[in-house]
Amino acid sequence: MIRTDLAMERREMHPQEIPGVRSHEITVGDARIIRIEIETEEGAQALQKPAGQYITIELPALNELGAFSEDVLVSIKNEISRLLPREGLILTCGLGNTQITPDALGPKTASYILATRHIAGDFAQTLGLSSLRPAAVIAPGVLGQTGIETGEILAGIVQKVGPAAVIVVDALASRRIERLGKTVQISNTGIVPGAGVGNHRQEISEAVLGVPVISIGVPTVVDAATLASDLAGRDIVSQGEPMMVTPRDIDTLIEHAARLISHSINCALHPDMPPEDLLTLAG
Amino acid sequence: MIRTDLAMERREMHPQEIPGVRSHEITVGDARIIRIEIETEEGAQALQKPAGQYITIELPALNELGAFSEDVLVSIKNEISRLLPREGLILTCGLGNTQITPDALGPKTASYILATRHIAGDFAQTLGLSSLRPAAVIAPGVLGQTGIETGEILAGIVQKVGPAAVIVVDALASRRIERLGKTVQISNTGIVPGAGVGNHRQEISEAVLGVPVISIGVPTVVDAATLASDLAGRDIVSQGEPMMVTPRDIDTLIEHAARLISHSINCALHPDMPPEDLLTLAG
Amino acid sequence: MIRTDLAMERREMHPQEIPGVRSHEITVGDARIIRIEIETEEGAQALQKPAGQYITIELPALNELGAFSEDVLVSIKNEISRLLPREGLILTCGLGNTQITPDALGPKTASYILATRHIAGDFAQTLGLSSLRPAAVIAPGVLGQTGIETGEILAGIVQKVGPAAVIVVDALASRRIERLGKTVQISNTGIVPGAGVGNHRQEISEAVLGVPVISIGVPTVVDAATLASDLAGRDIVSQGEPMMVTPRDIDTLIEHAARLISHSINCALHPDMPPEDLLTLAG
Amino acid sequence: MIRTDLAMERREMHPQEIPGVRSHEITVGDARIIRIEIETEEGAQALQKPAGQYITIELPALNELGAFSEDVLVSIKNEISRLLPREGLILTCGLGNTQITPDALGPKTASYILATRHIAGDFAQTLGLSSLRPAAVIAPGVLGQTGIETGEILAGIVQKVGPAAVIVVDALASRRIERLGKTVQISNTGIVPGAGVGNHRQEISEAVLGVPVISIGVPTVVDAATLASDLAGRDIVSQGEPMMVTPRDIDTLIEHAARLISHSINCALHPDMPPEDLLTLAG
Questions:
Q1: pLDDT at C197
Q2: Hey, is B183 helix, strand or coil?
Q3: Which of A222, B238, B272, D247 could form a disulfide with B225 if both were Cys (CB 3.0 to 4.6 A apart)?
Q4: Which chains would you list as touching B if contact means 3+ CB atom pairs under 8 Å?
């Protein structure tokens, strides 16, 4: 019983072809991009993921200055752009809990997204642009803090502001410890928060919200028993409650990933602005 | 032109009686409680505040251990209890920006409120109680971060979860520097976020949300020109933009106030639980 | 090759008696206390730890309010008191990096220690005591941040302030994931920072500083290969660099442990003050 | 009785020439630089500051992206370079308290300084440089936290590591609210921590440490009575304790100033490295 939120890790468990699942892989500079498309219910059952597109970008190691390469940024930005509608308000929602470091990817990413919905006209003028795409951002907290399912909060806000699409950002669980912080999964199938850590919450998807939902995630935790099974090469069953673990340098990992994802989203939303200016504005 | 969010400071500016405004004052231990009721539109115009009840609790100095007295806690709890409906879900909303220390009172208070809506039954049993009042909490951020008026976000959530009442917690502006962190204002008139700092946002009130709104605030900033006018004993007009200032020890002030307000709300919502247990659970 | 900083885990690896090593175990309420004394060089080699006393306190689970029991607090306080000199200045040093959550135990503990060296007389009077033991606190950061070995910084400060003893607090590595945050090791042998994570730094000990050094640690990380070996029941060799992992709820674990250790130290240093007052003063 | 740490504000109080004090002013792009040299004891008494050089750089407003101009950075870097010895270890010391936002300038600046003393050789090679100047960094906390005068801690460390010079970074008090966060003072006279807020601590200077001390400060607080006096145009005496105030946006002000000062120091220490690389490495 392997815990993972990554479609590519589910795909790897099947050495043979799977009916209803197509996948192919390309390399852009030092980034590796794996596209998996689940086309049928049969494929969905085989991979235990809803039908739709899953794009995984494997990041190379950070360079000697501790930064990601231009290739990585451009690849992620392009994948997001492909899934976004051309026009209209985009609402980004950072899922997770700021008080649990490995779960803080969503809120931290949200804190670096440029909100423009309330200033799109004026601010565009200040920057010398004819217009600026309206963007809104929310980090609603988690059920344990709020007493409310995140899906309910988000549905309430979507009804009020009517976005063209929603982007949800969340921390994921991976099967392999070496993928933590090194992999970005982008999908058009929505998300079930907490699924990877065995704490299933209300689904957040187009079916529920009524607008397209693009989910972006980075694995930040791995199940201790899954980790041991992989290192041992055979199934190890953990006694007692499952325990999710995370690397010792999780703070840096989260900061880097939040910077990378937020910058990619900002660039995808505002292709006319110089990326350096977006970086400066994001703080 | 005096900037203040406190009804009692507006009242103090009028030496004589004001038609449509009643006020009286009591002392409970070392806490001083001033009740002001604005009963008519005439009174509302005189005080430049909507009609309704305003209760101000003046806190004594912290004791030698740096803590508030029992009298203060009980007084605030009682005032909140009087305004709350007897039964049903209470949604607490922490207004403000976690990244601006003097504006972080709302979100910080929210982080110490016990959310029970999702666990009311089970958790009551664990604690040996027959039931636990459902409570939900939200800290939606501010317009500059989200691109969405806080009132819109809150209205969307209220529609989804249907609370019996909403408590909003916000940082206020005071006329006098010595009141910062030393005064609690509780009101049943709702709130206009940012009014005190000259940045009026959409009103949050029963008229807008359709359920009673109890607002709780503590002054954390003072307008520099207002401060100078008071110290000088005559009107001083500031050139350029108004500048709001805050004491050097604002971090401690916010932490103390957030602990005090959150504990008072938790005690008002769960009168059957020992206050020490509520303190421990709030973290 | 098992990574652990706990003497009791080294002891457990030897089913038989070890010459030069004595150990016995007692139970105080719900706390289990294991004392190991390494008396000879032979014993030191067998356990790969310097000769001296190692006291391990195994904590029971937190209670339903998320707090530690009185038994645990009293047990830790008593063990610290036994190792401390009766009089004179005590300098507490929080080792570790505030920016790496699992490494932040030392600095976080230090932030809750009451510094009294500069106010011992006045403050005692305010509190109605005849005197207050002088205490000083420092959190010097780590080599990667400062460019200076922590041992050098500490030696420089010890020369200036001349303490009767030094207490060092540090995060440790454990062999078993279930011990993380659940075990306190107290020792009179000093410490080699980073030893458990394979990053040996200059020793901090009586030999180096010239005054007794009491070290207090709580395991917060486990080596992924060690974890896998234990779960698998056989040796698993990790390829590439060793990776230290930590539980997903590491923030809570660190906060609880820092509160527990700091309160135990404060109580051991100021036995005449009511523990509740020490808690309030520590903020 | 005007509270200020800025030599230029003391100079401004004297309309006429002062014997033993020379000053002149230049403009570099959008930065204004005022140099004051106190040459005699008479001059020192007139300005209530020790004899030596005081360079004040007045910053223009941030640009529309919220960033400082290149002129500002280069001006500050050049002034620091002029005062530094050509070779040898530089120890930067961030004075102040991380838990009081307006006092956190020093520690926050320190957290962005690149420490190279322990890796100068290896790291230079990784970066393709023949050598890298050794730099060390410390943020020792304040007397209230540690129980030890910062000057004692620093003296102990200086004895151990033997720097060629020490840079101390501290938050200052200004007379005018509009200078907060907009002025940098660089001096070769050392510093008396807390002088501006009426809380004099042990001097940190070449006389005490035995090596040159360059102090860099930015005003972050203003005395409420001084502020009122200036706005009123006549002396206002505050009753009770003096109260230092700070702008509402103090968090942003501190973050910007810490980035500016740390980057200027990093550039002054490592003139052969591209400034963009230093920015990336500083995190």
A1: 63
A2: strand
A3: B238
A4: A, C, D
Name beta bridge partners: B221.
B173
| CB neighbour burial string for B43-70, b if at least 16 within 10 angstroms, e if fewer | bbebbebbbbbbbbbbbeeeeeeebbbe
Which token pair is A138? Answer: 């929310």
Name the residue type at position A68: F
C-alpha C246 chain-centroid distance: 17
Which residues are registered as beta bridge partners of A100? Answer: none
> What residues of C are in contact with residue A196 (Cβ under 8 Å)?
none
Interface test with B, best of D231, D236, D254 (most B CBs within 10 A): D231
Cα–Cα dist D43/A7, whole Å:
74
Give the 3-state secondary structure of A50-111.
CCEEEEEEECCCCCCCCCCCHHHHHHHHHHHHHHCCCCCCEEEEECCCCCCHHHCHHHHHHH
Residues of B in contact with D251 (CB under 8 A): 99-101
Distance CA A235, CA A230 (A): 8
What one-character-per-residue DSSP string does B227-252 give?
A: HHHHHHTS--PPSSS--EEEETTHHH
- Longest alpha-carbon distance in chain C: 61
Q: Could C231 and A252 be called an inter-chain contact, meaning their C-beta atoms sit closer than 8 Å?
A: no
C143 interaction partners in chain D (CB closer than 8 Å):
118
Question: What is the per-residue DSSP string for C6-17?
Answer: -HHHHHHT--S-
For chain B, give percent helix, strand, coil, nearest 5. Answer: 40, 25, 40
Tens of pLDDT, residue by residue over D155-208, are: 999 999 999 999 999 999 999 988 999 999 999 999 987 766 667 778 999 999
Residues near C258 by beta carbon (within 8 Å), at least 6 away in sequence:
C104, C105, C108, C109, C111, C112
What is the least distance, in Å, from the CA of D118 to any CA of chain B? 34
Tell me phi and psi for residue C280, to 5 degrees: -65, -45
Q: At what angle do helices B250-269 and B70-83 cross, to 10 degrees?
A: 60
**Minimal C-alpha gap between D123 and chain A (Å):** 10
Inter-chain CB proximity B152 and A152 less than 8 Å:
no
Per CB-CB distance under 8 Å, the chain C contacts of D139 are 141
Round to whole Å and give the CA distance between B141 and B104. Answer: 10
Residue B229's CB is within 10 A of a number of other CB atoms, namely 21
Q: Angle A150-161/B150-161 helices, nearest 10 degrees?
A: 120
Three-state DSSP class for D106?
helix
Calpha distance A255→A275 (Å, rounded)? 19
Q: Is D89 helix (H, G, I), strand (E, B) or coil?
A: coil
Residue C229 pLDDT class (50, 70, 90 cuts): confident
- With beta carbons less than 8 A apart as the criterion, state whether D185 and D170 touch: no
Q: Which residue of C has its CA nearest to B128?
A: C64
> Are D136 and C146 within 8 A, CB to CB?
yes
Distance CA A156, CA A147 (A): 15
**How far off is chain A from C244, nearest CA to CA, in Å?**
6
- ipTM strictly over 0.90? yes
From the list B99, B118, B139, the residue facing A147 with the nearest CB is B118
Which CATH superfamily hosts domain B7-282? Answer: HybD-like (3.40.50.1450)
By CA distance, what is B252's nearest residue in D? D100
Residue B128 binned pLDDT confidence (cut-offs 50, 70, 90): confident
**Torsion angle of alpha carbons D114, D118, D123, D125, nearest 10°?**
140
Q: Which residues of B touch D221 (CB under 8 A)?
A: 248
Q: Which residues pair with C31 in a beta bridge?
A: C28
What average pLDDT is seen over chain B? 91
In angstroms, the CA B234 to CA B87 distance is: 50
